[in-house]
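Lecture notes, unit on protein representations.

Consider one protein chain, 149 amino acids long.
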Amino acid sequence: MQETTFELGKSEVVKALSPFYGGPLLFNKKVSLGIVNGNPITAKTSIEITDDHPFVRMFHGRIPRLLFEEFAKQLAILISTSMVEPMMPTLKLDKYYSRAENNPGRFSLAVTKIGDFMGDSCIFELIIQGENDKRPTSWSFVLEWMRKN
């Protein structure tokens, strides 16, 4: 049995296509994806989010870190499952956060692939919409990663 680990978004290879991007994102999360063809599959993300990061500031501090942690986890699953399955679905989260988390409302989050896998990189789009927002905010980015066997 061989375990495959995908390391996603190392800080030096995370490149955003948005003018809001202002530096490396890093968040460490290891996600177990179960068994595929008898082999355990795990995904590890490295996406850093700081409170003063332009990506956070563009949402005026309305979105708590917990949402981005969920995003990192879901993105890891999205990428890793797409490497073993021919079709990749869009993952959507619909979470409610309390006022204690500086976010008095519900936000919907979607991550979707907007480009084909080219070697070890792919373009994705993050879509966030608050319950009081008239239209969603989207953020396109490209992730590169390494496969470690």
